[in-house]
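Q: For a teaching handout, I want to show students what a protein-ligand complex looks like in C-alpha cell form. Below are the inputs, and the small molecule is iron/sulfur cluster. Please produce the holo structure.
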Amino acid sequence: MDYRTVLTTCPYCGSGCGMYLPVLNGKLGEPIPAKTHPLSQGRLCIKGWSAHEHVASHDRLTKPLVKTGSGFKETTWDEALDLVVTRLLELRDRHGPDSLAFLVSAKCTNEENYLQQKLARAVFGTNNVDHCARL
Ligand code: SF4
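A: Here is the structure, written as C-alpha cells, with iron/sulfur cluster included.
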C-alpha cells in the first residue's frame, strides 16, 4: 500500500487556500484543510472540499476536441494548437487586432496570466484582456 499526503493549493480560485491531498495507491482522497496555512487557517469553502473530484471524473476532457460541422472530433495537442494559432492570425489579419479578446483565469498561476496578457498585447496587438473574476 502506497499512502502519502501532499500539501498543495486549492485550484479553484485566486484566494489560494492551503490543503493536504491524501493519495492512496495513486488515487486522490478528500482534501484536508491545512491548519497552519496563513490565509485559510484550516478552512475551505464548498468548492475546496470537492477540489479532488474532477480528477477521476468520467466527464473530464483528457484530449483536445475540435468542433466540426457534425460535432466534436478528438485531435492531438499539436493539431489543436496549430488550428488555434491559424484561426487567431486569420481573424486578426481580416478584422484587426481588436476583433480578438483573451480571457484569463483565476485557476491559472499569476505567471500564466501574465504570459496570456503578454501574448494578447505583444503578439496579437490587442488590449482586450479580461479575467473570470469579473464575469
Ligand atoms: S477553498 Fe474556496 S476560497 Fe479557498 S481557494 Fe478554494 S475555492 Fe477559493
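A: Two things your students might notice: Helices lie at 46-49, 77-95, 110-123. Residues 61-95 form one domain.
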